[in-house]
């Protein structure tokens, strides 16, 4: 299994880009701490430093994103300097022996696309395919592994259910429509990439956010009914549509989409599980949690990987997994416990081939802003100084050793404990 890290362009690059998230962050009250992605980790200017740091930690694979708004600042107009910039970054990664996995859409899109109706515009799928084709034509000699769309369910829920992501339109009917359009966009992108890059080396998939759902009270009929319904609406329907082209209610099959297989690997993003009491993300009392109050439940990664493999028997890549831990007080334990679950899954025959830790350097965490700290490398936002955390050294040693020795466990994991969620009352 190959071990690496994952990032997203909007969360690390910085800069005044005419994107939906730069626009969203400029609106009062949208970001928890009032910060903007225009600062982030300044990776656009510090990519050489970050690549050297990754190489120094022994990172084998790296999932990075492209900022669509940089590459296509106006409809059909391409920025040659931005394309050259990404080429140079990919070339250095290859030179350092780090294999890139490129994400084409990670929550962010150009404002011209949004102003034209976004994913609800009649030509949205065609516009996205045009972007994908241009990128693959320009960078395909350096990349043959692609994530078309990151976490379509999280995007739709944030943008069209809770209104915490741009465009902030709370409308369940629109949410279901966008789900269908995103599935069609992925399928068209999948086919276009394979047309442009024929051959068995090309790998295309989606990074799906999956989580176990359980009723808060199994004896409560409302909790029991709501649990499978939320599971289906949040992940079951959209995963099936994107992977097989089969659309189940409440999704509608877009015109021109046929059933088939539209994934070469199953990208699995895993962070936590949901305890169902109502529509929303619930956490029970007295369980291990991270800085954001998300339950730490490592066994859920195994549950989701098993479900993915049994339902869609293709290789599984853990395209994101990590935790918010500003003091680095439990990240090594979190890493160890989740990697141990993966090892158990592999021993049981589940083909988990990659693990991408979220994230490399502390990054701008969408509507939460600069507060949450997910990085193996700590960031001082005011100076942009990077400092490898103890958990970062643990991850580097795990890569080098091909596992965790008893000495490493004693040095990095033993003694680490999680905070817990508040008890009832």
UniProtKB/TrEMBL annotation:
Keyword terms: Glycosidase, Hydrolase
Domain of life the protein comes from: Bacteria
Coiled coil: none
Record-level GO BP terms: carbohydrate metabolic process
GO MF annotations, alphabetized: beta-glucosidase activity
Pfam families on file: Glyco_hydro_1
Keyword match Hydrolase: yes
Entry's family note: Belongs to the glycosyl hydrolase 1 family.
Name this protein carries in UniProt: Glycoside hydrolase
Organism: Intrasporangium oryzae NRRL B-24470
